[in-house]
Model the fold of this input.
Amino acid sequence: MGAPARAIPHASSRAAVLDVVRAAGTISRVGLIRATGFTGATISTVVRKLIEDGLVLETGRAESTGGKPRVLLQLNQSSRYAVGVHLDHSGIAYVLTDLGGSVVARMTRAGAGTDDPPAVVQRMAAEVAALIDGVGVDEARVLGIGLVSPGPLTPASGMGPAPPIMRQWEDFPLDEEVRRATGLPVVLGNDATAAALGEYWSGAVSGSSTFAAVYVCTGIGSGILINGIPYHGSSGNAGEIGHICLDPDGPECWCGARGCTETLAGPAAVVARARADAGAARAAGLDDDGGGPRRSSVAADFAAVARAARGGDPGARAVVDRSARYLAVATRTLANVLDLDRVVLTGQSLAVAGSLYLPVVQEELDRAFFSRATHPVAVHLSTSAATAPAIGAATTVLQSELVPLQPGTRIPGDLAEPEQAAPGPVGA
Amino acid sequence: MGAPARAIPHASSRAAVLDVVRAAGTISRVGLIRATGFTGATISTVVRKLIEDGLVLETGRAESTGGKPRVLLQLNQSSRYAVGVHLDHSGIAYVLTDLGGSVVARMTRAGAGTDDPPAVVQRMAAEVAALIDGVGVDEARVLGIGLVSPGPLTPASGMGPAPPIMRQWEDFPLDEEVRRATGLPVVLGNDATAAALGEYWSGAVSGSSTFAAVYVCTGIGSGILINGIPYHGSSGNAGEIGHICLDPDGPECWCGARGCTETLAGPAAVVARARADAGAARAAGLDDDGGGPRRSSVAADFAAVARAARGGDPGARAVVDRSARYLAVATRTLANVLDLDRVVLTGQSLAVAGSLYLPVVQEELDRAFFSRATHPVAVHLSTSAATAPAIGAATTVLQSELVPLQPGTRIPGDLAEPEQAAPGPVGA
Done:
């Protein structure tokens, strides 16, 4: 008869208040009451505790409209930190952010390559320690590690299925091993979703209600944000545009399907086509007598083809243009299904080739996006492609302290009745 | 630095409480406090008003765990009603539901066909009046009309762009005209999204977190529900799987793109291919000397082809199988992008041909859904395909009284401070 009752998610009013303080910059207690809808009693209780814990500072007074001036509150940025790690075949990026999400340290190290996962985890633990020590942050103030890598990820057992070049990571208990090696809590995530979150926190896409980060590194994926909240799908594997089918009878993909965008247009496909074109191969230094050391990764070879294309080599340009047209069509399909209003092109490969892809994707959406009569889809290049996934990974840790007032958030009517904060579903 | 603050949507605690009562069947005031997180004062204020307005009834007492027995509350089903209208080229379906979403009256009349919109609106007004009078419901108790039709819809100006066979409706001020003709408030919606909502309210997909209704009537679309809440996208046009590209070099679609699923596999494509096959055309009565009156719509011709296929005509079967394979691939793309856990096949055309499509779609998802190692995608046929969109349309009206506790809903801490119920965004 009626719809089944929905489970009502737990919410932390402390985290909600903290997020409003962060977003506001400075705000009074009265402002917090207006912004959160909490009672004055709730706000004063929560704020007192946040000040005791050192997360919030009182800072001067604002002229009030009559009555005594109001004390302003602001986030104590340096009271807590989070580590973000982006683990990929071709590189591992690290960032340390403060409670406000500002990057206070960053570094990039060699990728996972073909090393055994346990060895890579040991190295990551040492590199995370170096990141934290390097800026003299007390590890007791580090909330944890956000670790993202090519998906799909299962929280308990890492990547499954893993992309072919990271096959040895499939079903490796990534979070458990990193937690043991570093002594810090670990939150796993998908690199493309983290990239979208990183773009959002960087303020690059403010005002967008339905935003996707089209993410091309070694493979092709996307991260989806709805009103600033990551959309994960039923198992954390949403946004797999690399496996949008563009040709039901096309070549087989490692995922088991045919004609996937990644197989037709991904960096590996671009490199293979460039190798098959003598001129393009020579221009990109892909021919065996091209001199110089063999490159270690598909991403590096792809970057070489992109440079040759930008340099004017017609063969390399043709190969990249073909890839761009396929990616543009897949992006249009994503936009048609989600009714997107904004797309950011990001990821290591688009950081080097984005200028060649951007006009093709924008033209495709302007010409053929289904709802183009209603609104355009704005496409732009990421300005932080190299670190966006690591920054997004760190923010997922910060959000354990700073839960935004987001879809699903429920606010208890009175903190003095904590058992009301997390009610169970009603009826059935 | 930090993420931009989000706008905080308005919430009605009255509607939230009413939805919990509906979902629970019967519940005590104490149960409502637990379920909503509101204070006891808030609950007693809201419940008193709901009883005064006749929306909620007190019904007996439950044995309480010590203390005096608790009064149970339940929805007064017959206190309010809503009309749902599904306007399509080939038929117009009407339902009248009570406050609990139960259908108390339904009827189907001739479709919009090629008639002028104003004439169709006058007829709809008369048919809505007949629907309400037929069961002797006081029109004062009818909250309004939910009107859904092929999208995309713009609330102010109807369909834009409209599918070719309903071109005369493009930019017709549908809501305004129907409001004037009926004297009832009108809420416009997309038929595929309404179909998904109808399936959800019918309880057919309980337990699904990310569900899509694949909707085939004259065209192909889909409705997406995330935790039971319709996903509309940035302009109400999400879910357009009819315009998922399956062949970048394919035939041009009315939407302006090439190789869209609807153009390759929609009912019109199936009928055209059947006409081109002498045997199939004869079996389906599509050949000009097939006898019988010419059918009025693509949907009716498609139904004839489907019947011929089910009857064993090899040509008709081949045409339908080809369509099913394309729809299966488009459904897999939708599932990969959204990480779906459930799909329902619905809409007038799948009501007649669903048994031919279901195994093909399920096999495709079992074999090639990207995250199949993590979870399956369950596909089933709608049991209420003919009325699901109209029922979903009616529920959108009910939700003006019954706002579920849903993503985006914010709860004021204290009803005595109403100005806190709808705070504006903080910071920027």
